[in-house]
Amino acid sequence: MIHALQIAPRASWTQLSAVLGSSPDTLARRWDHLTTGGWAWSSLIVARGGDTTLYAWVELECAAGAAEATAIELTDDPYTLGVHQVTGDADLLLLVVCPDLYALDAYLAGRVRPLPGVLRSRTQVVTRLHNRPYRSRIEQLAPGQVQHLAEATGGDRRVRIPGRAQTPLTELDRKLVAELAGDARRSAAELARQCDTSESTVRRRLDALMAAGALHHHCLPAPRFSGRPVWALVTADVPPLEVAATVAALTRLRHTRVITSVTGPHNLALAMWLRTVEELHEVTATLVRAAPTMRITGTQVSLRTHKIGAQVLGPDGRRTHHIRPDVAI
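Request: output the structure for the sequence above.
Response:
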């Protein structure tokens, strides 16, 4: 069911029933159980990229015993798309998104560094986001089921990364994104009531935003229960003239989820989810075999993930709630 929703996020339960072989009522009850219990979620957020938005990896060193409280504090910020307690020299690793360098500086100086638990911070600005976060699928459907789903829903609706924002978001668009960040399957009727507009207008705007690549959908199981519970960040150095070929090779690997070019002592940072900590050794060897000019400069493993995208995870690894995004970004 999760794989089907990754392909067709707003397909009706009747459409999915024909593919998955269960009744619409059974699918709806099962999905309600997964989402209510925090085992899985479906979310729509603004697709950020091009020259309109800035990403950064931010490492924080914290006072003894303060890392967890600081992490929990930062999960409430719409600017954090990832909050991880990690191994290595840093205690916390954040993936931050801001409108521009000035906003990033204001956020770090006014919000992050003044926190009582923070001793030091190091920031690496992402100069290029090479692929979409949460782009991977869990690949559980048979090829025939994927084809059947595409035919039932009018085609595979995966969104490709646009070079830049196609059109500015309207006020209604911003309201829709804010409502869909917590549950991408909210009905058009419910969205229309919430946003004080008509169902046809809601459907028309969502179709237009998806077609323009303005929205990014991610449907995920809670990582701890997904079979790949270990988050890791690998940093690497690649000769500048080899970056394009290296990224192309790395993108084809199953393990790599987010590939970013960054400022600082190394020029690539790759985030991934692994089955076990031991798999990290195998994965780094695979990365170097795929891109022989790449030199691994560091690895970090998450001891606990507090936030993914807009979703906040509890100590047991299940989703507890979501943070409404800053759709002005």
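DSSP finds eleven helices and twelve strands in the chain.
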